Amino acid sequence: MTRPKDFAPSLLKWYDANKRPLPWRKTKNPYRIWVSEVMLQQTQVSRGIEFYNRFLAKFPTLSSLAKASWRNVLPVWRGLGYYRRGENLLRTAKLLVSEYKGKFPQDKKSLQQLPGIGPYTAAAIVSFAFDQPEPAIDTNVKRVLGRFYGCPEVGVGPRAVSIFRKHKKQSAELNHALMDLGSALCTSRKALCEECPLSKGCDYYQSGKRDVWAAQSARKTKRKRSAAPSIVDVGCACIHREGKYLFAKRIAAKGGKWEFPGGKREKGESIRSCLKREIQEELGVEVSVRPPFLVEEFTEKNFTWRLHFCRCRILRGREQCREHEKLEWVTPDDFSNYPMPKENRRALSKL
Ligand code: SF4
What we know:
The protein has helices at residues 7-18, 30-40, 45-58, 62-66, 70-77, 83-99, 108-111, 119-130, 139-149, 156-166, 171-184, 203-206, 209-226, 271-283, 342-350; strands at residues 230-241, 244-249, 258-259, 262-264, 286-300, 303-316, 326-330. Helices cover 46% and strands 16% of the residues. Helix 9 (139-149) crosses helix 10 (156-166). It folds into 2 domains: 7-204, Endonuclease III, domain 1 (Orthogonal Bundle); 230-350, Nucleoside Triphosphate Pyrophosphohydrolase (Alpha-Beta Complex), CATH 3.90.79. A hairpin with a 2-residue loop joins strand 5 (286-300) and strand 6 (303-316). The chain starts with 6 loop residues before the first helix and ends with a helix. The chain is of the alpha+beta class.
């Protein structure tokens, strides 16, 4: 059995042979670690690496970032999404320089007073930069420990704390190892228990819960495949000003066509609040939103996309090109010079 005294040694041995060579793991510099943790929130690791390297090439130190304005940061953040993260990064850098003499606090509580630093990021910084025995509990870590101990994910905190207290000197490696195992073997979609160094003591595997879960998810997938396509609602903002409409050009990786800015409605959201949120994130402005003047549907693979086109006006702020290649204000006479997907073109004819 792997539990409990062999848990950490077995995990660390596996990590030693399977670790991901990520650039932020080669440093103890709290600034670099903090930048990586903020970037990786809601961003895949493979994508995060490119942005991390680009960001540090432009802002290699805390003081270089603290001297910058959002205008300087935006070009290197563009495309990463969730712009509030970047704005908080900048605010925190300025605070650290003006009020903390350019040094990171070394305790979780003080770190959490800073904009954009929550319990997970604070734990990651003190563990990776200052070698404190703190578990950085993200969804991967919750899942691994929850499955191993057979406890609900909310109950993994005390288990994690006791493992880290016993292995104080290996805090950073333990956190990295748990994250890597959770992303390589113990994922939310599958659990490759036969390859896992913890399988001998894992409740999820040994009690047969994994097989029950695998059978259930196979049934669910089958039902899903035979079910009617899922509907995805999308808000499209036709923002107008002085007889012109704001068009946004998608980046080349997304096809490079022009479109109306906007995005997917989240659970429980109205189209109006979806558009207010999306436009604030994409363009950094507050808009008023009229009820949809056109709703268009099309089906692709197993999804029906329902596009809600709404007239909007900018109430506050100046539009910034955060996620697109460029923005342009276009008069109706020039609409035909901007290639758009056909559903967007139908909206143009109504404007
Ligand atoms: S044995 Fe399976 S369920 Fe348990 S931790 Fe390993 S991969 Fe996850």
